Amino acid sequence: MKWIKEGDSNSRYFHETIKSRRRMNQLVALRDGDQWVQGVEEVKGFVKNYFENNFRESWENRPNLNRVLFHSLSVEDNTFLLEPFSLDEVREVIWNSDGNKCPGPDGFNFNFLKACWEIIKYDIVDFMHEFHSNAVLPKAVTTSFLVLSPRRIIRKLCRTIALFVWCKFV
Fold first, then answer.
1. Is 12 a domain residue?
2. For the chain, how far is it from start to end, CA to CA, in angstroms?
3. What's the Cα-to-Cα distance from 59 to each of 49, 56, 62, 63, 97, rounded to whole Å?
4. How far is residue 130 from each of residues 113, 124, 141, 156, measured CA to CA in Å?
5. How far is the C-alpha of 11 from the C-alpha of 126, rounded, in Å?
6. 50 and 86, same structural domain?
7. Most buried of 26, 30, 36, 170 (most Cβ within 10 A)?
8. d(CA 141, CA 39)
9. Residue 35 is part of which domain span?
10. CB atoms within 10 A of CB 120
């Protein structure tokens, strides 16, 4: 209740809450077998080495495709695939998609696109043409975050997501 009353105003309570949260989320030491890794630089180095060692790939026994023959596209098929998207093609894909699926990164699902098609159709087609010509998606569409979190936060988050999914489909 105190947070609701005082909120995030520049108060002593706010700063104590932030300091407490920072202490709880701080990664001071890691256990490596029987030893402890302590200190900011040592923990950073340990985590970096851990992931480098686990995701390193050995290149000596990689398969090759020297004797595999692939079928090639005809000139007509290649030309067809390189043509920009037409308004009718984009509309057909949207209309053939289930409108109740999860919203995209912009928060809108296909029902919204169908309902507002006459207003937004040229913006959508322009977006598709920009992607087709540049082969680059806007950064907001491809953004992701990697966060190391304490286990109790992850467990709480998993329970929250499970509850949300259960509520959404019930």
1. yes
2. 31
3. 19, 10, 6, 9, 42
4. 19, 10, 14, 41
5. 48
6. no
7. 30
8. 36
9. 1-55
10. 14
Give me the residue label for tokens 């912009």: 106
Tell me which residue of 157, 151, 158, 156 sits closest to 25, measured CA to CA. 151
Q: What is the tens place of the pLDDT at every residue in 89-117?
A: 989 988 888 877 766 666 778 888 888 89
Two structure tokens written together for 50: 């851990």
Q: Tokens at residue 3, please?
A: 């947070």
Q: Among 114, 94, 109, which residue's Cα sits nearest to residue 168?
A: 109
Distance CA(132)–CA(83), nearest Å, equals 9
Any idea which residue has 């304490």 for tokens?
150
> Any idea which residue has 């695939």 for tokens?
81
Question: What does the pLDDT read at residue 166?
Answer: 44
